């Protein structure tokens, strides 16, 4: 037992690596799984990408991302659903059990938050059966409230569960991302509530000062203010036994040699999660 049995490298952490490089990096570091991003699949070709991952013996923990359901006109909502159906098909092709949903922010020019959230629910209602037919589960990921206007009108784990619980458990669950939910005083109660609805668990730390582009403000586990070990214990206690992805958006880390980044990912995972 190495302590890495549940570690997955999300491709966002080594964004500048090609799919082949990311797969090779996982194999060399004895990381058993990878979290894939659609942009990398499309660069490689989805069928070819599936073969690369399969031939390396890696599991796929998730595919990022679906969602962005909100639009100001019916045509935009239709295009979003069509794209999400393609994402479901891609997830099935590469063996990803979960399609992560970043649900979308306010439509351009809109201040109707309730209306945007209603669009999200309506879209998931249409997408969930299609995903289920393909053996893919939808994972609603709440994002920090600072992204509410432009990326996700679902801001808390409680909100995500309120949506997910309107569907069969095998169709829709939630993704717990430490970076997005660590601030929430209700998060521990909501993790316990989520139980087997947890479809994915992602790690990144909250580091200061935040950059001008706050999307890129994540840091390596242990470099910031989040009690990662407590989150890992809470998610395990809720019954989640799947892969744990390290997903970091950070320009400085992207400019670091990929092999060095992976070494840090492994070291921090073992220190904060893998050998608890």
Please characterize this protein's 3D structure.
The protein is α/β, with parallel strands linked by helices and 276 residues long. Helix content is 44%, strand content 17%. The strands form two sheets. The protein has an eight-stranded parallel barrel with strand order 1-2-3-4-5-6-7-10, surrounded by six helices. It has a two-stranded antiparallel ribbon with strand order 8-9. The chain has a single domain, classed as TIM Barrel (Alpha-Beta Barrel). It is built from eleven helices and ten strands. The mean pLDDT is 97. Helix 1 packs across helix 11.
The poorly predicted ranges are: none
The topology string of helices and strands comes to EHEHHEHEHEHEHHEEEHEHH
CATH class type: Alpha Beta
How would the global form be characterised?
Answer: globular
The CATH topology assignment is: TIM Barrel
Key terms for this structure?
8-stranded parallel β-barrel, 11 helices, alpha/beta, two-stranded antiparallel sheet, 17% strand, 276 residues, TIM Barrel
